User: Fold these one by one.
Assistant:
Number 1:
Amino acid sequence: MNPARIAVAALNASPLPLDLELVKDHLGVDGSDQDDQIERYILAAIRWAEGTMRRTIYAREHTWVLREFPPCSPQEIHLPRGKTQSVDAIAYSVGGSVTTLTGPSSSPEGTGWQEDLRGEDGGVIMPTRGSSWPSTDLDVPSPVVITFTAGWLADEIPDDIIHALLFAVSDAFDTRGSADLTVFGKNFDTRESLISRYRLKRWY
């Protein structure tokens, strides 16, 4: 399998993915004067954690471009970015035109592939039984495009990751205004340790 690129939908800033009052309680902050700044730190903390783990924390849409389907057995495609909630569509180019498949977790449901979305490290999709992935054009920018939703639902996120996010916000809050760009914060080792078991090995 030859991945080309992946795009992850932006985090919603309203409502915030991580509860603002929970973060303020962790910081020991009263009042709302610093809410805008803390909200920016929350989003930055999530970006830090997702980049470090190579996985998506808060479930949202992903668009993954492959240069081709797996050409030989096994024809499994292991989806990146962690817990897969659904695979919405697979679009591929053949003869200059695009064909779109839907599968078991698409809406509406289809029969274009088999899938197993139970793993915390990413779902697996395969051709339907007794068939193979189709050949695709190789001279187009996006030969195969898989659209899927990855990340945990808000009430499923492991506590270790929530704690790491709180420590990341705390570090940003404590070092705000520092001119020293090498400052990672006093909690850096702790938050790295908290998320270490959730790191994915796949670069994409």
Note: The mean pLDDT is 93.
Number 2:
Amino acid sequence: MKVLVPLAPGLEEIEAVTIIDVLRRAEIETTSVCLGENPVTGSHDIRVYADTDIHSAGLSSYDAIALPGGMPGSENLKNSPAIISLIQDIQRRGGITAALCAAPMILGHAGVLKGKRATCYPGFQDFLTGAEYIPSPFIIDGTVLTGKGPGCAIPFALKLVEMIRGKTQAESLKEAMQVYWM
């Protein structure tokens, strides 16, 4: 399975780097793409380098997308027709769509949360169009994973590993990383 992690200006740095790092530790093919300039400047003025840009990534080859939050990063991703189209295509093909912090609003905008349970950063619940909001650290509903915020980044990424590689792989990685909250 190939996972795309899009990076937009104003992203939440902890979330983006954690998702990419944990997936790569699990030996899941993961590519980060920038929507604009590379490096991408996050919401805390940390620059994060993407592997490639969105126009060179071959978007149709991805089976999953993992969206880091942050503002205005989530708004920038939501306003990208290429990202919205990719989310909808991945869902149609039965792939995984994952979003953390403010980013679940992008899944709501793309129409993939209808009839699903979801979580997000407090205050973004109204943007989970069609979803039942559950105030949990993370929620898995079918092939959709949503998470609450930066402090949930490692458990969120481990849940994504579990969805892709199974519980045994996720538990093994959790132990290797010495994660005690989940």
Note: Residues 2-177 form a domain with the Rossmann fold fold (CATH 3.40.50.880).
Number 3:
Amino acid sequence: MAALEAEVKAEAAVKNAAKDAALVRLREQKAKKDAERQALVTRQAAAVTRKPTVEDPPPKKRTKVSATDDLEGALELARKARGVKEELTRPRQGNEKSWMWSGGLSLVLGPLGWLYAGSFKEAIPASAAWLLLATIATKLPFMFVLMPAFLIAMVISGFAGIYYAVQYNRHGERTKLFGKDDDKALPPGRS
């Protein structure tokens, strides 16, 4: 019985020693983390309070925005919105293109709708690419996965169609959406 008691006490002593060693390790780890955290706080405080050096760019000055500046900006935005509304609601004249038809065709048919009012240099290649892409997509078994992308592209195409019609009505001719029209006539004597 005494041997059993001595064995139990020895096992308890070993367990207590292991517990004490684990507690010491945990305390050391906690102290290390606290020291790292304190060092980080010190570095951040030093970075915030340090004086600028010659290499540092000058701080950007904040301009105070007054209520009148906000009001002027809102009024300018309202004027632009009214101008857009007036342009879109005025009746068509002569050879002008309807922005509703252009937007609707472009929304339903994609870039094929651009042929109504858009630049042929952009509309024809985009239409060919659209038809090719649609043909390939219909052959894919997972076409339904691509539907959200096609729907987003069609909405963007609808806005482009509206833009083409408005530009056509402003300039009286088909204008490019991307880049400048560089196909103007060459100066005399050049071919």
Note: DSSP finds five helices and no strands in the chain.
Number 4:
Amino acid sequence: MSHRLKIYFMVLGSLALFSSCCPARAQDRIMGQIQFVKSSKIVKTSGVWVDGQYVGYLGELDGGNKLRLLPGEHEVLIRQAGFEDFRQKVIIEPRKILDVHVVMEKDGGVAYPDSKTSSEIKLNVQPRRAAVFLDDNFVGHVQEYDGAGKGMLVFPGKHRITIALSGYRAFQTDVTLLPRQKFTLKTDLLEGSVNDADPLIKSEHPDTARANEVPAVAPSK
């Protein structure tokens, strides 16, 4: 069985990656659950991959939006631009809740754009929980850069923006920004098959923003 078929999670209702022949109640009796214990505010906005697949940002996988998995071993990967990856292998037991304590450490090698000369990207995109990639580097989810006082500071120049979420067709565009230029991207992702998901959210080792290749790591003030 592939990693994709092992993942079962509930986000904004009920999402399942299993055949409809399996009754939900029967699944409930065997599923385990991960409960994330957050150490800081930055953790809430970090992206979550399970077995190499993006499942959302950590802050939404709480309360009624539960991250539920089939019993067995899984790899959890938490990513945030400007921070070291948090990676942990977990063993899920049937009907058990496993606490995962997430601690994000700053990446000391990250280069931040100068606020006096940087460009700014704002997003007006639906769904707002979709993952955002800049030049193929994961930089967060749409909601972080949508709204008054929110934005992404980037180095001036040419950049590729990719917005992707499982169940939707990925959107990608290239922009060339001048120093201090402000740019707003407005679009709605089109619904599609999980097969339409961009490779960036299906990769087992997705890139994050790193030193000397960091186009954006700083939110606007």
Note: Residues 71 and 93 are 5 Å apart (CA to CA).
